Amino acid sequence: MHKYDHYAEHIDGDKLKEEQVDDIVCCALEKIKVIDEEDYEAIMMKIHCITYGPHFDEHLAKKAVSEMKNVDGTIGEHWTVEETTRVMDQNGVHANKYDWYYLMNMLHSDYSNLWGEDVAQYVKFAKAYINDPDAGAGKVFYLWRAGKHHH
């Protein structure tokens, strides 16, 4: 038997064969998930980062936000993606809209006892955070990932 990459090289461009191999890989990943969920999560995170870079996509952002335990006792999002995207555009912020959605909700989750409903305060902080020149492009995404490993 050859290694996986040998076969992948030889079916390159044949859609039907690629789909069949994808199915096999998906089944193998499901088996890994059952045996070692942590290993599975690490593999899927690598695949996510190849696909999207170190950023949220809609699905992951909404999942991450839905799990937030907010200081006001509620759980989950305070602002929708549509609301945070509108605020982002109004304030001339150039960022991944799902990173911004996560960040705005995370700030509200943690600091609403300080800033209440003063949206401008959250925007000012989020803008400074996301535009920090010391931070790489994945700053918001890595913040979430770091938090996940502490629970």
Shape: elongated
Q: What's the Cα radius of gyration? A: 19 Å
Percent of residues in helices comes to 55-70%
Distance between termini?
41 Å
**SS strand fraction:** under 5%
Tell me about the biggest sheet? none
Q: Low-confidence stretches at least 5 residues in length (pLDDT < 50)? A: none
Q: What's the overall average pLDDT, rounded?
A: 93
Number of helices: 8
Tell me the structural class.
Answer: mainly alpha
How many β-strand runs? 0
Series of H and E elements: HHHHHHHH
Structure report:
With 151 residues, the chain is mainly alpha-helical. It has eight helices and no strands. The mean pLDDT is 93.
Question: Would you kindly provide a brief summary of this structure?
Answer:
With about 150 residues, this protein is an all-alpha fold. About 70% of the residues lie in helices and about 0% in strands. The radius of gyration is 19 Å and the shape is elongated.
Annotate the secondary structure layout.
Elements: H1 4-11, H2 15-35, H3 37-52, H4 58-66, H5 81-90, H6 97-115, H7 119-130, H8 139-148
List the keywords.
single chain; 151 residues; mainly alpha
